[in-house]
Amino acid sequence: MTHEYENIPAYMISGIVRYLTHGIVPGSFLQAVFENDLMKAFHNADATNKQCVAAYAFLLYFLPNDCYGSRDRVEAWSALRQETPIKLTDLGLPGVLETFLAGGAR
Predict the structure, then answer these.
(1) Between the chain's N and C termini, which has fewer beta carbons within 10 Å?
(2) Domain map of the chain by residue range?
């Protein structure tokens, strides 16, 4: 069984993981995705990511609510994780998603 988030390009995974675990705000496209700014996300997406926006929406569904949804939430998550980094395994993600993210975070 495949999951929609598996369509996220491998070159994007490390930015997602760094943000989730260490609060390092990713590039403009991912930042817009986490901020829930669809127009900004499309504006900053490369050709591959424009085809994968639904995959990112599906990914957000499984992430902690505090890490996405607005600029304020992204800034708060970033500050918290920079002060107190966590491991990917501490996020309580479904096993398949955790494995997917861990595999691309090399």
Answers:
(1) N
(2) 4-104
